Amino acid sequence: MKRAIIIIFLALLCSCDSGVEWRDEPYEVIWTDTGGNRTLNYEISKNASIGRVKAEVIAVGSNVKYVVAKQKSIDNGSISYFYIDREKDDKHLNGDEIAQGPFSEARFLQIKVELGLPEFNRKF
């Protein structure tokens, strides 16, 4: 009985839960372990993706040309903004090679007008 309890405890401890909360292929916002751990990723296969914007992603939007993300820092709660040019993205690139940012809100709003970035149409 004691051994069974230990095995169940270890199974619960080691198990990870995850889910997709938003998708505009090949991009997706996923969470791992908790809903408060959302990242923007580039899906490379049904079961694998590459990070583009680290947690905590709190809003996203997209159009034919761009994907935008709003991030809340896990460390200090500050807000940052990012955008990705879909034409320049590739599954062989790392997030820091493709995601433009972090930007302040004021700078992001300027870039939004200049490039025609989409609105945030999904908030978490």
Question: What does the model show?
Answer:
There is one protein chain. This protein has 124 residues and is α+β, with helices and mostly antiparallel strands. The protein is built from 3 helices and 9 strands, in the order αβββββββαβαβ. It has one domain. The N terminus is likely disordered.
Percentage of residues in DSSP E strands: 35-45%
Assembly type of the chains comes to single chain
Judged by helices, strands and strand pairing, the structural class is alpha+beta
What topology, given as strand order, has the largest sheet?
Answer: 8-7-6-5-9
Number of strands: 9
Which regions are unreliable across 5 or more consecutive residues at pLDDT < 50?
1-14
